[in-house]
Structure formats: C-alpha cells, structure tokens
Amino acid sequence: MDLEMKTLCEPEGVEVNTQPFVLIIFGGGGDLSQKKLLPALYNLFKLDKLNNDAYILSYGRRERTQDQYRELVKTSIERSLQGGKASIEDSFLEKFNYLSGDSEKLEGIDEINKYICKFKDIKKYQIIFYLATPPNLAENILNLIQKLELCDKPFKKKIVMEKPFGIDTVSAINLNDNLHKIFEEEEIYRIDHYLGKETVQNILFFRFGNSIFEPLWNRSFIDHIQITVAENIGIETRGNFYEKAGVLKDIIQNHMMQLIALVAMEPPANFEADCVRDEKVKIFKSISIMSEEYMEENLVLGQYGTGKISGENVVEYRDEKNVDKDSNTGTFFSGKFHVDNWRWAGVPFYVRSGKRLDRKLTEIVIVFKTPPLKLFGNACRDMLANELVFSIQPEEKISLSINMKYPGVENYPHPVEMNFNYSKLDTISLTAYERLIVDCIKGDLTLFSRQDGVEEMWRVLDPIVAYFNKINFKFPNYSAGAWGPVKSKILLEKDGRKWRI
Ligand SMILES: NC(=O)c1ccc[n+]([C@@H]2O[C@H](COP(=O)([O-])OP(=O)(O)OC[C@H]3O[C@@H](n4cnc5c(N)ncnc54)[C@H](OP(=O)(O)O)[C@@H]3O)[C@@H](O)[C@H]2O)c1
Q1: How far does residue 31's CA lie from ligand 1's centre (Å)?
Q2: CB within 8 A of 286, min separation 6: which ones?
Q3: Ligand 1 surroundings by CB, under 6 angstroms
Q4: How far apart are CA 355 and CA 367, in angstroms?
Q5: Which of 16, 141, 278, 381 has the fewest CB atoms within 10 Å, i.e. is most exposed?
Q6: Which residues are catalytic?
C-alpha cells in the first residue's frame, strides 16, 4: 500500500545566502571531490542556487594544468549524470582553478594568497576552506592556512572538515585545539554527509512531527533496533586511506553513531543547531563503554575474502591495491550497543556495516514488541512484530509493516507494508552534499557535528579499536557477497532475533 503526499502549503524552496564565496578545496582531484563535491556544485549551479560570484580553487599533489583540471571537473560531472555525456557550461568550468602543491611541505602559500588577493572586494566574499583530504593531512593543512596572509583584509571564513575527525579521542582534541587557533567554533563545519540525506532528516521529523509514534518510542514498546550500513563495493582505489581507517573509523565512529543518536535522542527544545546537537551529545554520553568480556561476546570484526558480486568474481581485501598482504584491517563490523538512559534501558541496538556485502543497503529498523497474547490461536503462523523501516540507500523510503487478517481464511495473519517512497514525489530534493554545501554557505550548523559530540563518539570507539588491535585475526573470515562472518548472524540468533535482511 503506497502513501500519497498531500500538499498543505507550497514549500518555499531552498534559500541560498546570496553572499559570494571563494571555495578552496584541498584534495580537489580526489575521490570524494570527483564523486560528490564537483557534481554537487554543478547541480547547485544548474538549480540556480550558486551565486554568480562563486569561485573554486582546487589544491592537490598532482601536477595539472588549468585545462586538465577543468577536464577532470567535466568528466567527474558527466560520470555522475545518469545519462552519460552532457555539455557542461563553460561559465561553470571557468569558476575553477587548480594549484598543485604538497601540503606536507607547506607548498602553495604564496599562490593561494595571490589567488585570493586578486578579488577586488574581498570583504564581500566568504572564504570556505574544504579539507577533502585524508585525515592525517589535517594538521599540516591547518598550518598552511594559518600562514596565509589573505591580503590582511577582514573577510568571513569557514572550514569544512570531512570525517573521520581525528583518529582517536586524543587526536580529535588536538585537531580541535589547532582549528581553534584559526577558526571560531561557529566557523567549523564537521561534516557527516549522512546527515544531509532526506530520509535521515526525516527520522526526526517523523518522530516529532507525528503524535502516534513518539508515545511508543521507548523500552516499553520497542523490542530492539537494527541499523545496517552495507556496501557491495570494495575499497576501490582507496587502499591507502582504508588501511588506516577500516570500517570502525570510516563508518562506525561517525555515520553509525549519528544514526543511533537520531533514533534515540530526546526532542530538542527547538530546531536551533545547538539544541539539536545538545540532545545528540546526551545520547553519545549514554552509550555504555564495553568491557573486554562484553566485546568478546557481542562484537564481530570481519575482512572480506574472494567471492562474487553481481555475478562477477572479486579479489579478497588483502589483494586490493595498496593493502598489506597480512592486513588486520576490518572491512566488516557488527555489534550490540546499549543506550543506557531512562528511555532505552534494556533495548539492544544491533549495528552492522561492511564492504563487499550482499548488496548496497542502509536502513534503520525499529522492531516493536509482539502483542502480549496470542489471541489468534488457530493461526498457522506466528504474528510478526511490527517493523518501521527507514531506508536510506539504495531507495529513500519509509515503510511500516502491520499484520492483517488474510481474507477468507480463518485467522491467518498476513503482514502488509505501508510505504512512502521519496522518489515518487514530484519535487526536486537536494542530495546530501548539495544540502550540506548550501547549509555551510548559509551558516546553518544543525547538520554538522560539534566538538563535544565528536569526542564522545571517539570515547565509545577508542576501547573497541584497542580491543580489536590486540587480536591476531585469521582473515579473511567472510566471502565477498555474504552478509559478513557467520558470527554476525549468531549475534542476534543467540538473543532469539534475526537480521531483517
Ligand atoms: N571518497 C568518498 O566517497 C568519501 C566519502 C565521505 C567522506 N570522505 C572523506 O573525504 C576525505 C578524502 O577522501 P578521498 O576518498 O577523496 O581520498 P583520496 O581519493 O585519497 O583523495 C585525497 C586527495 O588529497 C590530495 N593529497 C593527498 N596527499 C596530499 C599532499 N601531501 N598534499 C596535497 N594534497 C594531497 C590528493 O591529491 P592528488 O589527487 O593530487 O594525489 C587527493 O586529491 C577523507 O577524510 C574521507 O574519509 C570520502
């Protein structure tokens, strides 16, 4: 059963601050830039949401001429467009300039100064530094930024930091201290692009915009929560990065923690950035730190072996480019978390994430308790628990399963689904990166992490990383195309539950 959307009032569309900006992308030729940032900027341009006075300087290690870089911008955008080749407007490409330099040697300071100083009225621009670079470069790029003179004229500045922010609590605190030597907290945009996705934002809207679910949203009515962030792709060209990050730092410390917070948080006093972020931080603080005995029983780390994805044979993780032959890096994680507060005491949050899994799937499943009595004694099947599913990938969709009586057959329960699918809406919604770029230009920090939240997320992760670092794993322990190691299935089965998919 599909649900239609009735229009109560016409949405006003996404407003963009008309202030002109200069965006300096460190890592402007990297994977993130090519797949997400450049296409997002182009879509905003096409939607007429970029100021005419918007300019981009990309910085990277490789030597490239301006023409070569603009060609890279063009092909990145073409690749992102479903229809293949498109004629990308020169007026868009001309907004881009490229500068090659090694940030570890602090190269390019003079060139960046010169680039910015050529703008006649620098005061009218905001300057946004975007670190689309591996986390280990953050410190030296901040050194570089600190050394910029930028024409000694006042201008509005901001910095966007990609996840992961630091590599543990200590480094996150140090990184933050260094950031604060140059930027005020309200100028720092710690990005987690999951928060820019419509369905993710809709979790809060759904919970606090409807009165029928929130009274049930607690330990009395919810049996458990499942969160899956699964990809069928491997690490592609990102071996150097992934070897250091693994699934724990790439997904669990940031995306997964944010998803847990959105499901579990209390209603904020209002939707101001700090009120929302205050409530999230309370959830991170409530996630219990696990003992080694608990971790041994309730956490699973895996690494993919060979297997088939979409019918094609794929190599094992240790045979991927730039990966150590004896690598102990986890490409799969599942575990049972607890949010130890009044609302959630005793409700397990089962989470899992991995690469080279059966399919691309990101979803949050709220599994309600089954009715207290089996009234339909003659039923040939047990009643299934009601499940509310927020699908984030591949489709943005919300569905609720309910039990109906199957027509004509005595007391035969039949589960049906009520669905709401975003793709059926006749409206343009911004992709996560488009939305977050717009929010950054506008100065809206609601969907970005605050430092105390980042530190709390690391507080949960640090002991888990330390625990796994001590174990000498016999990897690989799952085949590409499976749902991770068998232990992940057993994790729920021993509690009398099972993964929805
Ligand atoms: N890729 C994604 O889908 C994705 C998604 C979400 C978040 N992120 C985050 O985005 C960040 C970047 O990831 P990525 O996948 O784009 O990495 P990547 O493909 O390895 O790109 C890194 C970029 O940094 C540049 N770079 C590396 N060393 C440098 C140096 N010493 N001096 C100057 N530039 C240097 C590279 O320049 P050259 O190209 O010239 O070598 C490249 O442009 C990471 O924090 C990651 O967690 C990535």
Answers
A1: 6
A2: 264, 339, 340, 341, 344
A3: 27, 29-32, 35, 60-62, 102-104, 132-135, 137, 162-163, 193, 238, 241
A4: 25
A5: 381
A6: 255
Place of tokens 């040697």: 105
What would the pLDDT profile of 66-89 be if each residue is shown by its tens digit?
999 999 999 999 999 876 667 889
Instruction: Please determine whether the domains at 21-162 and 195-493 fall in the same fold group of CATH.
Output: no
Q: What separation in Å is there between the alpha carbon of 351 and the centre of ligand 1?
A: 27
The residue contributing the CA closest to ligand 1 atom 45 is: 134
- Locate the domains of the chain by residue range: 21-162, 195-493
For ligand 1, mutation pick of 63, 99, 111, 133 (most atoms within 8 Å of CB)? 133
Q: Which one of 3.40.50.720, 3.40.366.10, 3.40.50.2300, 3.40.50.920 gives the CATH number of domain 21-162?
A: 3.40.50.720
Going by their DSSP bridges, the two strands 348-354 and 361-368 should be labelled as unpaired
pLDDT digits 0-9 by tens, 284-306: 999 989 999 999 999 999 999 99
Would you call 323 helix, strand, or coil by DSSP?
A: coil
SS3 11: coil
**Sequence-separated (6 or more) residues with CB below 8 Å from residue 143:** 106
Task: Compute the distance from residue 163 Cα to the ligand 1 centre, in Å.
Answer: 11
Superfamily holding 195-493:
Dihydrodipicolinate Reductase; domain 2 (3.30.360.10)
For 198-218, how does the pLDDT look when each residue is reduced to its tens digit (9 = 90+)? 888 889 999 999 999 999 999
The secondary structure of 233-276, three-state, reads CCCCCCHHHHHHHHHHHHHHHHHHHHHHHHHHCCCCCCCCHHHH
Integer CA distances (angstroms), 239 to 88, 123, 236, in order? 31, 41, 7
Nearest atom, ligand 1, residue 103 CA = 32
Q: Name which of 73-77, 147-151, 254-258 the model is least confident about.
A: 147-151
> What mean pLDDT, rounded, does the chain reach?
91
Is 11's pLDDT higher than 70?
A: no
List the Cα angle 217/220/226 in 5-degree steps. Answer: 60
CA dist 308 and 317 (Å) reads 13
* Cα–Cα dist 181/278, whole Å: 24
Inter-residue contact 103 to 141 (CB < 8 Å): yes
333 versus 14: the higher-pLDDT residue is 333
Q: What six digits make up the tokens of 168?
A: 């543990």
Taking residue 338's Cβ as centre, other Cβ atoms within 10 Å add up to 17
Mutation test residue for ligand 1: of 241, 251, 431, the one with most atoms within 8 Å of CB: 241
